[in-house]
User: Fold these one by one.
Assistant:
Number 1:
Amino acid sequence: MEEPVGLAGRPDVNSPTTDTQDRQAAPPPTDNPGPAVARPTAQRSRRPVFTGRRGLSIAAFMAPAAVFVAIFVYYPMIAGGQMAFRNWNLNDLTDTSWVGLKNFREILADPVFYTVLGNTAVWVVGSIVPQFVIGFAIALWLRRKFRFRGLYQALIFFPWAISGFLIGILFRWMFNSEFGVINDLLEKAHVIDTPIPWLADPKTAMTAVVIANIWYGVTFFTIMILAALQSIPDEIYEAGAIDGAGKVRTLFQITIPSIRGTLALTVLLRVIWIFNFPDIIFGMTGGGPSNETHIVTTWMISITQQGDYGKASAIGLIVVAMLMVFSVFYLTATRERNGTTS
């Protein structure tokens, strides 16, 4: 319908049609002329209301797990900790009186303790460094795409599924001085003339158990580092290749900085694990000969087998304290280094 036009060709303001259009276009009056606020729709999900009945249901589901952890984790920890301050010996249970720091003083006065500490340092450092280097190299190799890569990964990850004590027995046979495969291979290669008593000689016993632990622990580093390497985008390597970065520069300026956090955490976990890992040593030497392969944890177990639970518990608390101090210093150092390089 045409709009009424006045004399000058403009819309007639007095026309009823024009007045109706103006009323439709004008916004309705409001008492609070502020910004419009979107109203929540009916489809928006509401947060469930926490009630006492709901809390009781959650507590009922958590109670079995909490009771299990309290009985089998916290109670043994507290009971074992208090044994360190008592005269707790299975050979004489008539006197379990409180002796304070007596067990700790006896441990620190025992010269075997310092021999065991030295063995523990050799055990940890001699195992962790080769495990890290070899595991890193294998992880870099497995990151590449090649034929039968999944098969190689399965073969490399397989040792981690075997018991540590079983690995110790296996390597005890391999290092046997009479029919061991290690001496046989060395003799055929004309490296040695007579068999070496690997596990009977104090000079070679620790070397043998460290070699076994290296073989066993490489898999852990390979798994952790490979998972971290697969999280690095390929675009970063492509950008580095365009900039002319070689393999060494790519490794130290792209790969390692990208997974530095994973490397630090993996090393920390592995140090704690090796420090508390007596399985291989018990399977190969049992701590001998002459305590030359005893580490702190195997020495603690041997004292437990003698029935002196008080002294063994004191050694356990010393181990916990040493690992806590190491963890604090290690995490502080790595955090400061990451903060400096970032």
Number 2:
Amino acid sequence: MGRVASAATLTIAGVGGPETSRPIFSGIVYTGAAGFRRFHKCREAKPSRQARRKALPAVLAAAVLEFPLSWTKFCLGSLLLVPVASSGADVCEVSAAKAVFTIPHVKHAASLDTDPMSATWKHAASAWIEKDCTSRTGYPDLRTEVRAFWTDTDLYLLFISPYHELNLWLPADNSKDRLKLWDRDVVEFFLGDDWTDIKHYREFEVAPTGDWVDLAIDLNKQKYEADWNSGWERQGRIDESKHIWYAAARVPLKAVSERPVKPGTKWRANLYRIDGLGEDPQRHFLCWQQTCTPNHDPNHVPENFGTIAFGR
């Protein structure tokens, strides 16, 4: 993983569109979970997640890198493949009233499972993930239901994800964190209780195979903690006959907040799904609360998170 070079700027000549010179920190060297993804892909000469915008070809006449190289590895070729939006017409806009997911309290929860018809999910509330994170595009055929409720000790979530084809890490290994899980089909949810320091939150991911990763994110320090352990429980299941895969999670409330959770408590949150074969430009990046930030990792945008409200 690289280190951040201070005051670094990438200047691109001959590119259509308004964004021709910008701090490289915002687009390339952020070393949180998203930054790890970018460096991983750079080493393999693949375009990053931020390069996924469809129909936005990169037209680069020249590139000038204006900083002393301070990384052990740097892939300029991959950098040059990152397209820059030529028009903002397709980019979504975040409204002042961001998404709110109010979830009910359940006194006695059953054991965690991935069966949406089971008693475990009988009293859960539902939200839906079907829009592209950055553009006005919708994916009704991938419309993903998220069911949730909470108990005195835990937050429960169930993702119900229709699919066409699966993109999996195989063989599965549920015994430990699986980094780079985001490079295949996965659902993600980010949770944070700090409304002052919004760059501090937790990241959770589950794949159809049940592979998982949980991360402590602190964008102020440009890092994630892969060795952090939330103590959560998770499951994945694939129903090939229905072309639906399921992910269930039970997250201890204390893993996200040291403060007591009670009716009326609100957490900052977002819900995501990544789907599809191929490289990032061919894949689908869906958000419950759209983040609407082109040329940037679409998930790690805490200023555009929605809210989970703990109900009665």
Number 3:
Amino acid sequence: MRRGHPERGGLLLRGTPGVTSSFSGFIGYLVARLLKFELMATRNIVIAPCGNKSYLFQESWLREKDKKDFDVCLLFYHETINNPALYEKVEFFYHLKGFKYFMLNELLTNVRPEWLNTYDYFYFLDDDIEIDTFQINALFALSRAFGSAISCASLSKDSFCSWPIFRQQPNSFCRFVGQIEVMAPLFSREALKTCLPSFTGNRSSWGIDSVWSKMLGYPKDRLIVFDEVVMKHTLPVGGGELYRKIQVDPHKDWEEVVTKFGARKQNYEEYGRLQRVNAKHSRMLFLIVKVRGFWTRVERAWRDYDFWSRVRRRLPRAGS
């Protein structure tokens, strides 16, 4: 077990109000980074389960290790570590030998509870998710800028997928939804503190994402799928090692945990989105916006010219 210390020096809104200021915040954040202002030390962390067959953390997540804006903590679930040298590139490694959300609960409750006040954003990836360093950086930056409670990347077209709502939408920048699934959620610190008691709600983890929405009060603008960021789910749903080991019916688990917390069974709804509008994306809407803009300029020019006042000034006055 190795330990360390994390502290080191054109869009159109559809459906959901109140996002403009958040998008402005995002632009401000990017400008500050481009101007090389040091906003803060790394306050982002990826925490993921890991076993002897896991490889994507090395080949994908840490492909550009020197450019990452996050720490990595791996939670090893097998009894024996076959090749300890593989995990030396990550900041933290714990041999907890359990299921994903049970290990996360153990880590954040008993092993490193101080992390709940050290990091701002926590990304809980499954080890069969392929997403590169820059995409992870982008998801952290976007989540911070939009003030999301829980967010996720969208799924690529060639991903194994349980819920179609999470597939990437080509004309969308991001979508505001009713639920983020357990596979790869990115939590804000505040949302994580609220939802952490549900992590051991059942053995399979099915349905605890339904509980998160309930615990957060079913927000309509803080659970976000970012279509700008894409990940690939590389293994069939229900085909991983977990399902051979849990020895419970996940469907029954799901029913029981939502009943226990008084949550809806599922809330996979879209409440609104920021949509790309340009010559390549949403072309008809782009043309409508362009026509409206042209007409507005014509109206403004007409008012500024003040045609009728000019005419009246040229007419002879009575008695002249």
